[in-house]
Each structure stands twice: as C-alpha cells, then as structure tokens.
Amino acid sequence: MNNLRRKGILIMKASASSFLAATVLFAGVSASSFLQAQAPFRYDAATVSGLPARNIGSAVMSGRVAAVDAIEQDGRITVFVGAASGGVWKSVNGGTTYKSVFDRESVQSIGAVAIDPSNPKTVWVGSGEAWMRNSVSVGNGVYKSTDNGENWTNVGLKDSEHIAKILVDPNDGNNVLVCATGHLWDDNEERGVYKTKDGGKTWNKVLAGGNLSTGCGLLAMSRQEPKTIYASMWDFRRKGWTFRSGNLPTSASGLFKSTDGGDHWSEITGSSAKGLPDKPWGRTAVAVAPSKPQVVYANIEAEKGRGLYRSDDGGATWTKLDASNFMVWRPFYFGNLIVDPKDENKLFKPDLILLYSTDGGKSFNVVSGGAHGDFHDVWINPKNPNVVIAGDDGGLWRSEDGGTRWKHQVNLPISQFYHVSTDNSDPYHVYGGLQDNSSWVGDSSYPGGVSYSRWENMFGGDGFWMFEDTSDPDYIYAEAQGGEIGRVNRYTHEIRGLKPLPNYGEKKLRFNWNTPIHMSPNEKGTIYIGAQFLFRSRDHGQSWDRISPDLTTNDPEKQKQEESGSTIRPQRCIPGFIRFRNLRRTERLSGSAPTTATCSSRVMAAQHGPTSWATLQAWGRIHGCRRLRPAGSTKPRLMQPSIGTRLEI
Asked: Are 349 and 286 in contact (CB under 8 A)?
C-alpha cells in the first residue's frame, strides 16, 4: 500500500472481490459457492497489495507548500520541498523535475525541512505542518536522512504533532535545534525548543513554555554566529468554534535569546529591552540577518503595538517599523520572515501576497505578481540572492531576478482534496474540491494517459463537495467554504448560486467551513445541505425545505467560527494594498497618481493603474469596502480619483 500514498488521486485497476472471483472462476469453481463457504471476508492492506495504483493527477493546480530548503553545489541547486499534506519532494536540477522521497513514511504532513550545511547528504524533516489553520494534518516527530533523502529514520519527538523550524549548527551537524509547536487542539508536554548533541539519538527540552498550551513559534540564527539563537514561544488553542492566539492576560507567548547554542535562555521583555509592545502577545515571527547578526527582525502579534520591529543591537533596543494590514494579518498562518543573506536591509514577508522591503523594513512592495498567494516560506540563494524560491498555497514559484518575475513550477502533484466523488460515465469522471484551489473534474483514464488538459476547473474558493447532477449530467453541484453551493453547467460554466437563506427577520444561518452536502441516491435531483438546520431541495436547489429543528447546542459561545484567532481582526479589502493612512471625512489626495478605494475609513494606495479599476470595483463589492464620492456629490460610488480630487467617505 505504500504506493497508495502517492499524491493526487489514485485509481485501483480492480476491486479485491472481483479479483478473487476471477481467480476462483479460472480454477473452474463457482465464485458464489466458494465465497459462501469461506469465513467472513477480511479486507486490509494485504488484500490489495498486489494491485497497482496509477496517479491520474493533476499537478496543474499543485497545493500548499509549508517549507522549503535548498543548497547550491558546483553550480547545481538541490531543493527539498515540504508539502502541507503531500510529503517531501526533491529536485537535483533547481526545480526542473521533482521526485517524491517520503512515500514510505507513516505521515505526509511536513512543517520544516533543513539541509545540513556542513554535510548536505544529511537532511532533517519536522513532520506536522505548523501553519495552524482549521485544516492541518499532524506529524509524528523528527526524521533524518543521511543519503540525500533516499531513506529516512524517525529520531524522536513523536508526540510533538507540529514542528515549525529546524536549525542545524553549520560547524557541527550533530547539534540540532527543533522548534516543536505542539498539539493544536489540546495540551501536551512535548512542545517547546529541543536540542540534540548526538545527531538525534537523544533530545533535551532546553526551552519550555510557561504552560502546556505554549509551544515554539519559530527559531532564528545567523550562520556567522550559530551560538546566538532567538526563539518565539506561542500560547495558542484551536477549538471547533474558535481559535485563540495569545489573547489572555496569562498568555505565555514571548521572545527569547540564547548565546550558548540553545543550552540556556533569557526572555527579551519590556523591562530588559526598550521599544517592545506590552503583553499579552500572540505569535511572533523572528529572523536574524545572515550577513549582520546584530540585526534582528520580529513581527509581533499583540493587542497594542502589533507590527514589525527591528533591533540593530542584538535585541537590546527595538524600533517599530510597519503595522499595515498585511503585516499583521493572520499570524497563525503567515508567521515567517526571511532576510537576504547578503543585505541586512532586504527581507521578505510571506502573507496573502509576498511583501519585500529594501530599506530595512521601513516600507514594503508587493512582489508576488500573478502568483497564487498565501505564501509560507522563501529560500534565497546565498551565492546569488537573485535566485529565490517561494512556496504558497498554489505550490512552488521560482524567480531569477530577486522576485520581480516568477515562474510557477507545475510539476508537484501535492493538491489537497477535501472530498472526491465519481459519476457513472464510461470511463467515469472524478470530481473533487481542493484546499484553496477550487473544484475540479478530471478523467479516470484517457488514451495516452491523463494529462493536465484533462482536468478542468469548475468552481472557485476552497473546494469541498462536488457531485454530478444525476438527473442531468450536463450539470454539476459544487461547493466552496461556508456552504457556498452552486449548480454549474459543465460546458458553459454558467453558475447559479443555491445557498439557502434565512427566513425574514432571522439571524444568519450557521454553515461550517466544510459544510456537508449530499445527493439523494433514491430521488434524482434531490440534494441535502446542513447548517444548524438540515435543508432538502427537490428542484435542483431552486427552493429549500427546512426539514429539521436546530441540531446544534445553539450556544452563543460556540458560534465564533469566523473569528481568525488573531488579537487583531484587520479589514480585508483589496489584495495588493499595503500602505494605509487614516482619511478625514474630506481630504485632498496628493502624490503620484495612486488608485484608491476605501474600507472602514481607510485609504489604501497601491501600484495599480486605471486598467485594473474594474477589478478593484469587484473586490470592493465582495469585501465590503465603503464607497468614495466626489466632494459635493450625493451619490456614493466606487471611483478612480485623480490627483487633487477631493474625496468624502
């Protein structure tokens, strides 16, 4: 069954029962009489171990990359990619081709990857993704390979479940630090910072959290001074109806420093350092400039004073730099900073978009271009910083000019299918919804193989359930997050929204992120969907009958699914906008022809020109941006102002 763990969708060529029946008939015995005479049929991995599986893809939509590390040797770049739930992939040609190297292991969720700089044949992997959204898979500890990733050994910390970072001493590969984030849904002991001095044979917890809900958020060091290490500790807890990141007066989140390789630690607090925000904190991303170890960056989640901070003296004093929307948004999912290996003033901030600063964090530009978005990790080539590899929810991207232009590496079949269904065609089609990559339909087989072109994107958002309409195969039912269900014409892509609405005067219906829908096997055209009530439609979703009472506890304290868990709930307006300033009710615009829109009394100036204004209008409507109006006008409207135009909110 090892090959069944290959990423994408796999098809078995025959069922176990049909294989057994065919074998018995070949022997001249009635299959039915033979099966009746046998003990109850046992179905396990051994039953189908001899049946081959085939990957039908697809890699075109790729999937979430949680971690990436690489090294250049003799002009060739070797890359290791850790997928959120697709294992570890290796390239020996800078990403031109990849092969899966982790299929034989019992877990496939990866949180950290680290190549030993003193012995690149040794690679460390921390299993269990640490970008702690509501749909993450768990790991079972630390893995080590001593043969370039061909074989792996689990070397401990099996109850950590999620690992955010691994640091390898550049002078001694036996000294390794692990940032164990710990359980997402409950308390556990095996979380914090762990160190081994014997290559993983034994581990010591060198930095523990202040309670059992506090683990390690991130680790950072410079290879110039590997004895000096910074660690962020993070107090968090997710429940089915909410998420907490810090948010308590007793939160144990904080920033720590070691000057002896991680054996001893001291906390950097407001009393020991100047310029830091008041507690409580949530998650902190920390990074050290490789070329100048005294320069340290920390992006701190806090109720007051949240934002990006910089220290030029190893953490003794700090200056606040940037607290714009994308700098502080969703730190549980975007808790990373990466500093250029040759210039301490250049750094990347992964987020919904990829941000880049060239002035030491004072200002940032959007450099992700047309990339998918939701970035998590970046590798910069120390020998040539123009070569950058970035991982996001849409896979892996490579730039040869420092991040100005990107090429999508569509050769990683690591898509995350929430649900899969099939129809009754011959050959049948496969339908599925993907995490942050829409809903797709593809062939189960095709002459010459199932290529990229045989997969078709049918519906947007995070994809979940997707079914053929059994009463009319020209139509598909598809669903995005929060119960956003639609009926899609497979050939014209025309979509009609079907989501049930509340009754007049009733509060909104409560749909789960992963809302269940189901097609009736007995009545063609009948479909069910569940909020706190169960709904049924017998006319393809044109009308809905509420056929159950409230099936939940109806506890208001358990109705906070939309809260991100951050200590701040920033406005979400138009992706790509990173500069904010308060706008008085009437103010004259100045500067170099920005395109603007308002959202909750803020103006966002971006690098979009007039040609993109229609797109901005659409985003404004979708995300609830307030409308601008020319001064003196009585009709608010989304508009593109020119220099000197007076605007009112």
From this structure: no
> Starting at the edge strand that comes first in sequence, how are the strands of the sheet with 429-434 ordered?
417-422, 429-434, 439-443, 455-459
Distances (CA, A) of 209 to 50, 126, 167, 233: 48, 19, 19, 7
| Other CB atoms within 10 A of residue 113 CB | 26
- What CATH number is given to the structural domain containing 509? 2.130.10.10
Per the CB < 8 A criterion, the answer to whether 364 and 346 are in contact is: no
Whole-angstrom distance, CA of residue 538 vs CA of residue 520:
10
Look up tokens 């060739």; give the residue: 76
DSSP-assigned letters across all residues of 101-162: --TTSS---EEEEEE-TT-TT-EEEEES--S--SS-----SEEEESSTTSS-EEEE-TT---
Q: Are residues 343 and 462 in the same domain?
A: no
Amino acid identity at 569: R
Closest CA to 349 of 301, 288, 285: 285
Please check whether residue 389 is in contact with residue 379, taking contact to mean a CB–CB distance below 8 angstroms. yes
Residues 291 and 376 in one domain: yes
Instruction: Provide the domain limits for residue 531.
Output: 417-558
The one-character DSSP state at 503 is P
Specify whether 543 is located in the same domain as 585.
Answer: no
Q: Which residues contact 325 (CB under 8 A, 6 or more apart)?
A: 570, 571, 572, 573, 577, 578, 580, 604
Cis geometry, peptide bond prior to residue 290 (ω within 30 degrees of 0): no
Residues 536 and 627 in one domain: no
Nearest to 220 by CA among 300, 307, 120, 337: 337
Is residue 272 located within the same domain as residue 382?
A: yes
Q: Which amino acid is at 435?
A: Q
- pLDDT tens, position by position, 292-349: 999 999 999 999 999 999 999 999 999 999 999 889 989 999 999 999 999 999 999 9
Q: What is the rounded distance in angstroms from the CA atom of residue 397 to the CA atom of residue 368?
A: 9
Please write the tens of the pLDDT for every residue from 26-44. Answer: 334 444 454 455 567 777 8
DSSP state of 625: P
Let me know: does 86 contact 414? Beta carbons within 8 Å: yes
In a domain, 330, yes or no: yes
Residue given tokens 């640490």 in the structure block: 130
Q: How many domains is the chain partitioned into structurally?
A: 4
Does 516 lie in the same domain as 464?
yes
- Contact assessment for residue 482 and residue 518, using Cβ atoms and an 8 Å cutoff: no
What pTM value is reported for the model? 0.82
Which DSSP letter does residue 393 get?
Answer: T
Residue length of the chain? 649
- Stretches where the chain sits below pLDDT 70 are 1-39, 563-649
Query: Is the same domain home to 102 and 70?
Result: yes
Distance, CA of 488 to CA of 472 (rounded, Å): 11
